[in-house]
Amino acid sequence: MKKILVCFCLLCLLQCCVWRNTDDDISVPPDYYKPVTMARPAFESAVQATTFQNITKPGKIYIKDELMFVSDVNKGFGVYNYSDAANPLPIGYIKIPGATDIAVRNNNIYINQAVDLVSLQYNPANNKITITSRNKNVFPQKLSPRGSFPNVAPNQIVIDWTL
Question: Element (H or E) spanning 32, and its range?
Answer without folding.
Answer: none
